[in-house]
Amino acid sequence: MSVVLERQANLSGDPRLAAQGFGKRAPGAPRLFDPRREADEACAFFAAEGYVVLSEALSADELAFLNAFFDRTQREHPDAWGLGARRKPHHRNQGLIYSQPLLDHPELDPFVRHPASFPIVAQLLGGEDRARFAEFNFRETPKGAGPGAMNFHHDAVREDRLVRTPYMPCDWLCAIHYLTDTGPGTPCFAVVPRSNRYETLKEAYEALGEAYVEVPLYGPAGTCILYDTATFHTRLDGEGDAARRTWHQYYARGGWLRSALPTTDRYIRPPTPVLTDWNLFPERLALHPDPKIRLFFSHWNTAQGEWVASGFDPAVRAAMPRGEQ
Ligand SMILES: [Fe+2]
């Protein structure tokens, strides 16, 4: 029996199945889309599959800038990365994370509506005036981190996804940009295509039948993966001795949208709820002079509401769980 098969903890409870999902890997690599020339095709692929991969979404200069940002902030602000004495318990086994870099680094602002990925994100959420910011973070699986044993899961979901018509636009989507090269042997992101309309991975496995596959998404630095947060996904471990850096940005859908349920055709989808109760937007973005940018940053949680009411008091921010500078 292989090492992979001996590692248990699969969702089905069947010990013959691999630890990370059902072990049914896709035979080939998925199609890549050029975000600047194939936006419509990329959106159609996402609507059908629940994810899409965009090639060369970041330039060499942008990659150098972001990697230098990682190096500099890990050196100068180790606590922000959970390095050292204040390592955060909820991030153990997930590598390093810099949770809210936008709070203190306006030099990152040009990335929040990136010219390669954002037009596609906006189209998938129903148009530029419907796209909303949710969260922005940087992550690193350091060299030699060893297995993390993350299993397939979905992120935040809305119950109506299982029954509403039409399904799209999705409720939230996440953009993962690879900042280092990934390939067999490095940790990588993996998805189960078309799994976003099932409650459990086992249901998807049974319903999709032959079509059920787990797709590792490899690509050079600069590759961007967009996925519906309802799509089952994981981080495959690789061989544990290579580092991987990623930029993760979550977006939500804004506005009210006519839809239908099996019981009524008069259903109206509300704006997607906030993703977390702790994520904060800095004053320069939340109260931006451009109404278009203010709308983009308009999905405030209660922590944000209190922070705004305090006049963005640093003491209020510091009392929040990930508010450290
Ligand atoms: Fe996830």
Description:
There is one protein chain. The protein is of the alpha+beta class and 325 residues long. It has a single domain (20-275), classed as q2cbj1_9rhob like domain (Jelly Rolls, Sandwich). Helix content is 22%, strand content 20%. It contains 9 helices and 12 strands. It has helices at residues 3-6, 39-49, 60-76, 118-124, 201-208, 283-286, 291-296, 302-309, 314-318; strands at 32-33, 51-54, 96-98, 131-141, 172-178, 188-191, 215-217, 224-228, 233-236, 244-253, 257-261, 264-269. Strands 1-2-8-5-10-4-3 form a 7-stranded mixed beta sheet. Helix 2 (39-49) links the parallel strand 1 and strand 2 (51-54). Helix 2 (39-49) crosses helix 4. The radius of gyration is 20 Å and the shape is globular. The protein starts with a helix and ends in a 7-residue tail after the last helix. Residues 1-17 have low confidence and may be disordered. Residues 153, 155, 233 line the site of fe (ii) ion. Fe (ii) ion is lined by residues 153, 155, 233.
